[in-house]
């Protein structure tokens, strides 16, 4: 993929401290100076965030780290405000890219975010919808928004044998609710919740493109199947062991390969035309099944999301 001839400006990335996000951050920071963006790193405050920021600075990048717990919408709003302040004061160049990379797999769908929403849906979907909505007026066109998706939403038979479950869409009001205290749930329910949160990301990307400026392209990046990464740390020990074994099989994805590919999607000229939630699997645009495009679901999700983020009762 050709490198960029456009001023890369600033790229904001969530989840820069581990796995895919860390490698993508290093790939962006390590580019030649003319192709290197300034970086806004949004992640949990602490040693890991400080270390990633220091590594990016050592590579030559201008960096601002922004501490944020994505399970708290107040934190997300504060992170967006800090990013806007950095941009307004000229501490970083204009915002031209946002990578919604951070993700969570909660092994228990009874767990709620600080705002009372089911934790996986809250972090993987709602937090990024809040962040993007708050920053949308701050983008300098041409710009790109890249949301990290997952093929779990359409998991086939082989993946289901591994405990991966396909999405099961319900009204977004229901998706946002943690499981009732008296309901018995297990790993399968958690896997469905994860996959469904990623289907929500797809639906959101389509609707976001309709509402974003003409100069902002929205796409979804699937890094490939990476069994054994931190996302699966709440799986049963036997499944974790099996996943670690699968990592060694030929053809499996890895952060080392997919991280630079993610950096390329948000920066390089060859991807500048991505729009309308185009779905890229590592380095190839991949057509999606018919149910991944549903205008009624997308509009309903957008409406309910606005209500949830504003604290209204849907």
Description:
The protein is of the alpha/beta class and 314 residues long. It is 41% helix and 14% strand. It has ten helices and eight strands. It has an eight-stranded mixed beta sheet with strand order 3-2-1-4-5-6-7-8, with helices on both faces.
Give descriptors for this structure:
single chain; 314 residues; alpha/beta; eight-stranded mixed sheet
Structure class: alpha/beta
Q: Which sheet architecture does the biggest sheet show? A: 8 strands, mixed
Radius of gyration over all CA atoms, rounded? 18 Å
Mean pLDDT: 90
Report the strand count: 8
Q: Count the helices. How many?
A: 10
Low-pLDDT stretches are none
Fold blueprint:
Layout: E1 10-14, H1 19-29, E2 38-43, H2 47-58, E3 63-67, H3 73-88, E4 95-100, H4 119-135, E5 139-148, H5 157-161, H6 172-175, H7 187-211, E6 216-222, H8 237-246, H9 255-267, E7 278-281, E8 284-285, H10 295-310
Parallel strand pairs: 1-2, 1-4, 2-3, 4-5, 5-6, 6-7
Antiparallel strand pairs: 7-8
Helix pairs in contact: 1-2, 1-9, 3-4, 4-7, 7-10
Summarize the structure.
It contains 10 helices and 8 strands. The protein has 314 residues and is of the alpha/beta class.
């Amino acid at each position: 993929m050709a490198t960029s001839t456009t001023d890369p400006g600033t790229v904001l990335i969530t989840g820069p401290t581990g796995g895919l996000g860390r490698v993508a951050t290093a790939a962006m920071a390590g580019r030649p100076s003319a192709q290197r963006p300034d970086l806004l790193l949004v992640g949990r405050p602490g040693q890991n965030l400080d270390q990633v920021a220091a590594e990016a600075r050592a590579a030559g990048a201008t960096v601002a780290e922004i501490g944020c717990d994505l399970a708290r919408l107040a934190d997300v709003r504060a992170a967006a405000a800090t990013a806007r302040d950095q941009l307004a004061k000229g501490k970083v160049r204009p915002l031209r890219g946002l990578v919604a990379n951070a993700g969570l797999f909660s092994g228990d769908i009874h767990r709620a975010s600080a705002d009372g929403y089911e934790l996986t849906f809250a972090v993987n979907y709602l937090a990024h919808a809040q962040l993007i909505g708050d920053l949308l007026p701050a983008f300098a066109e041409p710009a790109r928004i890249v949301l990290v998706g997952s093929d779990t939403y359409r998991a086939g038979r082989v993946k289901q044998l591994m405990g991966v479950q396909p999405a099961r869409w319900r009204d977004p009001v229901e998706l946002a609710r943690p499981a009732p205290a008296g309901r018995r749930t297990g790993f399968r329910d958690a896997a469905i919740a994860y996959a469904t949160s990623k289907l929500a990301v797809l639906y959101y990307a389509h609707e976001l493109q309709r509402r974003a400026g003409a100069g902002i392209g929205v796409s979804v990046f699937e890094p490939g199947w990476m069994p054994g990464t931190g996302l699966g740390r709440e799986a049963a020990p036997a499944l974790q062991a099996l996943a670690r074994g699968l990592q060694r099989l030929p053809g499996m994805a890895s952060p080392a390969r997919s991280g630079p590919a993610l950096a390329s999607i948000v920066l390089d000229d060859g991807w500048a035309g991505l729009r309308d939630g185009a779905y890229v699997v590592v380095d190839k645009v991949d057509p999606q099944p018919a149910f991944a495009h549903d205008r009624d679901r997308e509009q309903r999700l957008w409406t309910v999301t606005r209500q949830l983020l504003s604290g209204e009762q849907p």
